[in-house]
Design goal:
Keywords: Coiled coil. InterPro entries: Phage_capsid, Phage_capsid-like_C. This is Phage major capsid protein. Pfam families: Phage_capsid. The protein is an alpha+beta fold and 412 residues long. It has twelve helices and 15 strands. A hairpin with a 4-residue loop joins strand 13 and strand 14. Helix 1 packs antiparallel against helix 2 and helix 5 packs across helix 8. The termini are far apart.
């Protein structure tokens, strides 16, 4: 397996070199890509994305194998005493399986391991080398993982607050800092110079969906039903909640990070909404150093925008997009990680197509448990078990002084 991963990584680097050669040739001849070259360039971009997807699948499969080995080892070595039968993770898995098949009650609350904060676990599971091998996967963490794959905001390192109940949560914030101190004459009067404070309210909006599974599938122990249900639930909740974390209006829904961002750079009128390298650099430096130097600082855009950004060079002829050195790690633009989210607008005139800044200043609130309920009667005539999943959460930008800024295509 390590040899295959190495070959896959070498292939990714080779594909990127082919794409660079194509772009460099056109630039040297002072022309745009021909139709055939553009088609080749798009194919190479698709190859890069496919390799990245395969790397993620391999990492997930490796983790599942480790979990299965641990589970079998626990079963073979278990103590016959009831109190020693299985680990806490085994007991949790059995509890979920009993609920799935109707052995236990119709309602199930899934809660995370409170010993490890959510944002630390998600960051540590991005790659095996970062600590994924030390974190066992349970049903709840599979659900969060799939939500992260769907929502770029959750992957970008926001501040996640988990509360036991869903009452409105007030977060204090500064809207303006004290101005600079000035020289005061002897016995002169000191001028008032106070910071300005405000509040951000985080509610608990409810997201939910139904999922139906046949009794045959639920009773088939050879099927990874937990993984399937986690994947489907994570994608459905992530598509709903995750989209609002980007573009939510803040009225009866979360205030999205894109909605709350401030203007960092407006594109030139010469290109229809797309940025050039200088404009990305301007956007980069429009965010002040304390936020720019944060470990949670990065870029966010949709996949299609990356294909445009990969073509850009700075004033020294270097590509601003830098492929990751290891599979599974985020690519870089100007030394900062790039996160993709399908809810980000496409490049267009007047579109806020790129975000850059410190995503830890965006707060995501989640009510503690993800609620699941089962009904054997809802689809009685088709012999389907119906599951209902409920997530309650909210999101808003706490620091509104310019911690996260956007690029907007020129509307002229």
């Amino acid at each position: 397996m390590p040899e295959y991963i190495k070959r896959l990584q070498e292939r990714r680097a080779n594909v990127w070199e082919q794409a660079k050669t194509l772009l460099d040739t056109a630039e040297a001849e002072k022309r745009e890509l021909t139709a055939e070259e553009e088609q080749t360039y798009q194919r190479l971009n698709a190859d890069l994305d496919a390799i990245d997807a395969r790397a993620k699948d391999m990492a997930a499969a490796e983790q599942r194998t480790k979990d299965a080995d641990e589970a079998f080892r626990a079963l073979l070595d278990k103590d016959p005493a009831p109190e020693a039968r299985g680990t806490a993770a085994d007991q949790e898995t059995k509890r979920v399986r009993d609920w799935l098949t109707g052995v236990s009650g119709r309602s199930l609350d899934i809660t995370p391991d409170q010993r490890i904060p959510l944002d630390q676990r998600t960051l540590s599971k991005l790659s095996a080398g970062a600590g994924a091998n030390t974190v066992p996967i349970s049903f709840y963490n599979q659900l969060v993982q799939h939500m992260i794959e769907t929502s770029g905001v959750l992957a970008a390192g926001p501040t996640v607050l988990r509360t036991a109940t869903g009452e409105q949560l007030q977060i204090p914030k500064t809207t303006a800092h004290s101005a600079s101190a000035g020289i005061v004459a002897e016995a002169g009067t000191l001028t008032a110079n106070e910071p300005t404070f405000g509040q951000v309210s985080l509610d608990a909006y409810k997201y939910g969906f139904l999922l139906q599974v046949s009794h045959e599938l639920a009773n088939d122990t050879g099927v990874d039903l937990l993984g399937y249900l986690a994947m489907q639930a994570g994608r459905a909740l992530g598509n709903g909640f995750g989209a609002h974390l980007v573009t939510g209006t803040g009225s009866s829904q979360p205030n999205g990070v894109l909605t709350a961002s401030t203007l960092g750079k407006t594109g030139s009128a010469s290109v229809a909404g797309a940025p050039n390298a200088d404009e990305l650099i301007d956007l980069y430096y429009s965010v002040i150093a304390p936020y720019r130097n944060s470990t949670s600082c990065g870029w966010m855009m949709r996949d299609a925008t990356i294909a445009t950004v990969r073509k850009l060079k700075d004033g020294n002829g270097q590509y601003v997009w830098q492929p990751a050195l290891t599979l599974g790690s985020p690519d870089m633009i100007l030394g900062k990680p790039v996160y993709t989210d399908p809810s980000m607008p496409a490049v267009a005139l007047g579109a806020k197509s790129i975000l850059f800044g410190d995503f830890s200043t965006y707060f995501v609130r989640e009510v503690e448990s993800l609620r699941f309920e089962r009904s054997d009667d809802f689809a009685f005539n088709t012999d389907l078990i119906t599951y209902r999943a409920i997530l309650r959460g909210d999101g808003d930008q706490v620091d509104t002084t310019g911690a996260i800024k956007h690029f907007i295509g020129n509307a002229a």
